[in-house]
Amino acid sequence: MSETTQGGTTRVAVVGANGRMGQQACRAVEAADDLELVGSYGRGDELGDLGGAQVVVDLTVPDSSPGVVAHCVERDVHVVVGTTGWDDARLAALRQQLADHPQVGVLIAPNFAIGAILMMRFAAQAARFFESVEVVELHHPAKVDAPSGTAARTARMIGEARRDAGLGEVPDATTHDPDGARGARVDGIPVHSVRLRGLVAHQEVLLGGPGELLTIRHDSFDRESFMPGVLAGVRAVADHPGVTVGLEHYLGLGD
Question: Shortest CA distance to 247 belongs to which of 93, 69, 117?
Fold first, then answer.
């Protein structure tokens, strides 16, 4: 960080602090010796100067997230975003805004769990070896978006890997599916969403070839699993100006 509070700590605010993930993030920041929680904001709260934060963790909802991030960037505050819904159009608008704030870093993280990041990376590496691939994501029923940001990013990573390997479309002879039983298509990859009481965040990637099946699965049983990634993002975002999509780039796992 270019500026720190006395003793070298980084000032952090959490937006979306009333949600389960936000509450967990606040506790994680407070427990870290090198971080100081200077603000926690819920729905409808005025963000103002963000309590003098140097880094904001955005854990809001897709409709609110672009406004939160824009508010932070205008004040030269770095942002770690754990909210989904950041499509190409939103990313393009953010990059345009950041052109006037070239020192600000924004991390868009579809998933903070280290195991989930590895799952996505392994799936992309395996994709070129298999003719068939589908993604199944399973979450709690309070989740407002489908497919999950993790599933969408996984599918895009797989799609890119398949194109680089010269593979065609995933084979599927289905011609009649009026109720959408075959799921969504993200970058040509079938993605299926399950919403079930008792779940937290789970995903599996099924890769099939003649006579074999490879399953790559990750399970988060508690939101505590996301906190090491949240803190890693907070600590590194200032060193990565501009937009970064995926925490893997902060962990040495990116391309």
Answer: 117
* Nearest Cα to Cα of residue 252 among 121, 162, 123: 121
What pLDDT, in 10s, does the model give residues 151-207? Answer: 999 999 999 999 999 999 999 999 999 999 999 999 999 999 999 999 999 999 999
1 part of a folded domain: no
Q: What is the CATH number of the domain that holds 230?
A: 3.40.50.720
Examine the pLDDT at 4 and tell me if it is beyond 70: no
Domain-located, residue 217: yes
Find out whether 51 and 11 touch, Cβ atoms under 8 Å. Answer: yes
Report if residue 255 sits inside a domain. Answer: no
Q: How many CA atoms, within 13 angstroms, populate the side-chain half-sphere of residue 70?
A: 12
Residue 1 has pLDDT above 60, yes or no: no
Query: Is 129 among the domain residues?
Result: yes
User: Which residue is it, tokens 């989930």?
Assistant: 116
Same domain? 217 vs 120: yes
Domains: count for the chain? 2
118, 92: one domain: no
Q: List, by residue number, the catalytic residues.
A: 139, 143
**Residue owning tokens 């819920």:** 42
Same domain, 120 and 217: yes
d(CA 137, CA 123): 14
Its pTM stands at 0.82
Residue 51's domain spans which residues? 10-108+224-250
